[in-house]
Amino acid sequence: MRISKLVGERIKETPNSATARSHSLLLRAGFIKQVSNGIFTFLPPAQRVNLKMQNIIREEMNKIDGQEVLMPVVMPKEIWEKSGRYFSIGNEMVRFKDRNDHDMLLGMTHEEAAVHTCLNVLKSYDQLPVMIYQFQTKFRDEARPRAGLLRVREFTMKDGYSFHSSQEDLNKYYQKVYEAYFRIFKRLGMKNLIAVKSDSGMMGGDIADEFQLLVDAGEDDIVMCPHCDYKANMEVATSNLEQINFKDEPLEEIFTGSAKTIDEVCDYLKIKPCQTIKAVCYAVINSDELVICFIRGDKEINEPKLKKLLSKEVVITDLTGTELVKGNIGCKDLNIKNAIILYDNSLKGLCGLVTGANKEGFHIKGVNMARDIKPENYYDIAKVSEGEKCPICNQPLEIKKGIEVGNIFQLGTKYTLPMEMKIHTQDGSEINPIMGCYGIGVGRCLASVVEESSDEKGIIWPMSIAPWQIYLCPLRMDDEKIKAEAENLYQTLSQDFEVLYDDRNVSAGIKFADSELMGIPIRVVISPRSLENNQAEITIRKTGEKTFVELENLKYKLNEIIKSLS
Amino acid sequence: MRISKLVGERIKETPNSATARSHSLLLRAGFIKQVSNGIFTFLPPAQRVNLKMQNIIREEMNKIDGQEVLMPVVMPKEIWEKSGRYFSIGNEMVRFKDRNDHDMLLGMTHEEAAVHTCLNVLKSYDQLPVMIYQFQTKFRDEARPRAGLLRVREFTMKDGYSFHSSQEDLNKYYQKVYEAYFRIFKRLGMKNLIAVKSDSGMMGGDIADEFQLLVDAGEDDIVMCPHCDYKANMEVATSNLEQINFKDEPLEEIFTGSAKTIDEVCDYLKIKPCQTIKAVCYAVINSDELVICFIRGDKEINEPKLKKLLSKEVVITDLTGTELVKGNIGCKDLNIKNAIILYDNSLKGLCGLVTGANKEGFHIKGVNMARDIKPENYYDIAKVSEGEKCPICNQPLEIKKGIEVGNIFQLGTKYTLPMEMKIHTQDGSEINPIMGCYGIGVGRCLASVVEESSDEKGIIWPMSIAPWQIYLCPLRMDDEKIKAEAENLYQTLSQDFEVLYDDRNVSAGIKFADSELMGIPIRVVISPRSLENNQAEITIRKTGEKTFVELENLKYKLNEIIKSLS
User: N or C: more exposed end of chain A, with fewer CB within 10 A?
Assistant: First the structure.
């Protein structure tokens, strides 16, 4: 490819719109162009990376007997009605009516379509296990697309769906996919990649693992134990809380004036947040029900845990229209109808606590949970904080930022049961097959690699997915001899390698900057001086290492370097 | 691939829903499954064909310096507003509002997106010519999807867009694509493939060629001259009409009673249809304007020509609400306001004709066009009929059925002008680059190959795009020796070939029928008898030719056959 013809302009300045390193670099290096909020065009360099990534993923999916299919982007309401998701998913799903007034939607994921594909096609236990997968466009109307390709509305996903006649068979296959995913991410050039337990979210099902690339730009919090193998997404992470003992005292109503927040109350009473009971109130969506959560004052509510516990969508409420006294809500003598009241594990066994008095200007101190409140149950609805103890080995936990680049779920019969997919078992009875599903966001992987593999000069592509292997960079293209030699070298090298040829008559500075910004693994420079010695200069993007090589040995040397970088 | 695990069931009976040979065969052989009207899932065998086809097309596009990109399926209204197509395209385009109430649409084609991609990226004449292309999902909400993959609503298209600094440069590049298309269709295994001049339809622009595969299931009429090279889609085809001379007589109003249609009038007056003037009336869509077309009674109106002439969408009207006398409309003394009146070339120079008298029960005879009507212009708005004379060599024309598998258009500045894409020319001025666009419907090609290449037993895949090269077909799988040898052969052959392994313990009849229905080019049978002689039986799907081969020569022989079939 001649850079003079390449669709994809390099830009020096960081665009204002860029909020993540990968976003900025992919825009600046001419890899992507925004079409609308969260919708991008992949320019030729990005599409080259994209195809290489897809081929790696395809190879690994085929190795575990995946069968590639192509299910549609546009689907009719009917197949999403049976699973219930046509109604349960909110406005992230695009719905429209076709010209015949038929309800249609854009696929956000393809569990229903996968069951439809295999319905009446897979009929017997001895056909299973089967896994189908595809690379297909998804559209999710995200409220807040951000950070370039890291959170978009339209994207290509590799999504796979497996069918099993028993839980044991699913477990066995799930483990195979788990291992294939590690191979994939390694081959894509990712380094700090871990698998963590996660919430299954809208997919349903019980067991779920996420593959997280640990980089600063990540928007997920990953709780990790540096001493044992414990790793979990904050959404499902747990910890052993330190036992705190306060003095057990009788209940007493105390004046706290305008002190409302935990910090204000603690300042006023000269106590620590961990001695208070915090109330956090949620409204249930599409309902007038309230949820009031009580949690130790130094802890935060973990909303994914809360939603999963309730099996309801909830949103923080400002209490407008309720009789609750904002800033003075307490768990002692709380009189409210139509509310679910929940207590977090962090309050269990504590005494000497301060809670709101449910009237303006007052709190109650000396609360003994077991004596004064007696909740029927305590629940785990708290976020883990850095330094809390590992639930496995009791050592202090760390929290890191991660990008979810893939996820795998055990779905059970969540889809096969309502969609009435049945198979014959060995004993002649019929069962609903058990499913697993397996996703990788291809574009997000591309951006994640850039997050992890770049420096102040630009991207550093791993050899396996680099858009081109070699940046051929002749200096002084106004020199006829150089130009002739460069053209000749371009033809020769293109026979064996993927070459981006900088055929422009511009300065060495511009050429070097572009080659570094675009992140091509190997740069080959020829100049009047190097040609005098019949040599080319090779520079490795990753290490900056430079070598001079005789032109007649160039192909041999490049092969060697490519092998060592692969 | 083991057939026992293959997602894709073979069915004996032709499904009721199938209206075309390819539709029936692709359903019966387990290649596709319908999800909704005009929306299909590609099962694993079809997706294998699909990927091979895409690779062939990709190779040929890259050979003519195409740069692969990926533009989005979902686009914002804005970029389609500038070109005017947001409004001019009807309900074939899916429009919806996103969660932020923003108008969005599903891409039916990507001219606007291609200009958006290159806007401010291509800036100078010396960057051109440039061609970008993609494989991307399109959605066209067709009124009448039909015939399986031949006319669908959702499909994958290879669409390419080129940019040029001069018409000469476009002409040169257009010719390159034209030749690449022939190479592509040949490599896809198509035989009766021709290029014809066509109408540019909604793409706009002037020059357009279609690539038509001549098969009975085609829905396009192709006008061809068997004597010279003239070929054109009926939409744009012309012919030299035979000069017909009737006796020149004075005008005379005659009673024709209830005779209304051309046939009735001819019966009544004992004349031939070619001696009459037929009136065909259209309403302009979204307007109260009428279009009245007069044409020789034996000819039909060519609606695409008419629409192009008018640059308006029109539809046949039943004349309700007009003062026209149905069945008696004539061109002599026709008094009507707000109507466009057009005369077809077929009437030019004729005399002695019969036309309606514009009153109930009467016609006028003796019409001499030049004497009595004196139209300012005659236009070509007629369909060509079989046997009319070739406009080039005056020999009788033939009409054949074709499937449009690809098309190429010269677009001029139809998109770059309104979207304000400009490039610097050599003399320092600015111009709007000139565009070409180039489409291939991948799924339609797949079905077209099946239309052309199949027999009563099933599909006959060309080797280049066959889902598997070899169908390994052991007989008597209940025999342990056969089973062991088959497994062994499957492993060995899979190292070098793409093998579909029929590992089922079913009859030879079922296995042979499935291998023929699925159209795998080579069948390799081992049976207790063949193993006695240490042989396998090879059958070529296309010819039915059978040979016995020693097992130790099998790989060599298969290589030879694959080469000869490629």
Answer: C
